[in-house]
Write a structure and sequence with these properties.
alpha+beta, Beta Polymerase, domain 2, five-stranded mixed beta sheet, 8 helices, 44% helix, globular, NT_sf
Length: 195
């Protein structure tokens, strides 16, 4: 796999697409018809080649109306997905408004699933506003800025999270803004963590 970093766009070539990638592409295509989104957390490191599994993929979406959410809901159903939390779109929308995540998966399965949520803090807002476009074999998805992704994984602090942060840092250390990385580490209280 070859990674080319150019401004706000990252191109991946010769990446072997797996079932998890296909799932993320499908969810992303539906979401982008109705709202802005960004993929955050563990899948970002998996996307760039880290060999580990995950059961869910985290998506942050921009605010949307109930009417728009109902159309998004129906689009998911028409494309072979189902919601895990509830069957009623109004109930799911209320969950989103209350800063809870809604989960969607392919019908008849549970994993992988997409955990979809509205921004709950300035870090989620920055992920949406500063998102990067990743081009993969003709498709695209949006991910959080690498600097924020690394700092947030350090903040989460689990062994797997720290390994994800180190993995991303090693890949992108020559392409990231180190001042931004330090800023986000400071904002998240992990500035003492050296990579």
């Amino acid at each position: 796999m070859e990674i080319v970093f150019s401004g706000r766009r990252i191109s991946l070539t010769n990446k072997k697409i797996n079932r998890l990638d296909e799932f993320v592409f499908e969810v992303s295509k539906i979401l982008e018809r109705y709202t802005d989104y960004v993929v955050v957390s563990g899948y970002v490191s998996i996307l760039f080649g880290r060999s580990r599994g995950t059961e869910d993929v985290d998506f942050i979406i921009s605010s949307l109306s109930l009417e728009t959410f109902e159309r998004l809901y129906n689009d998911f159903l028409e494309n072979g997905f189902e919601f895990i939390n509830a069957d009623d779109p109004k109930e799911l929308f209320e969950m989103l408004i209350e800063k809870q995540a809604v989960r969607v998966c392919k019908r008849g399965t549970i994993f992988p699933n997409a955990e979809i949520k509205l921004p709950k803090d300035k870090f989620h807002l920055e992920a949406l506003e500063g998102k990067l476009e990743v081009m993969i074999n003709g498709g695209k998805i949006f991910i959080s800025p690498i600097e924020l992704q690394i700092a947030y994984k350090l903040y989460l602090g689990g062994e797997r999270d720290i390994e994800d942060a180190v993995f991303l840092y090693e890949i992108f250390k020559d392409h990231i803004d180190h001042e931004k990385l330090q800023y986000w580490k400071s904002q998240l209280g992990v500035e003492e963590f050296e990579l």
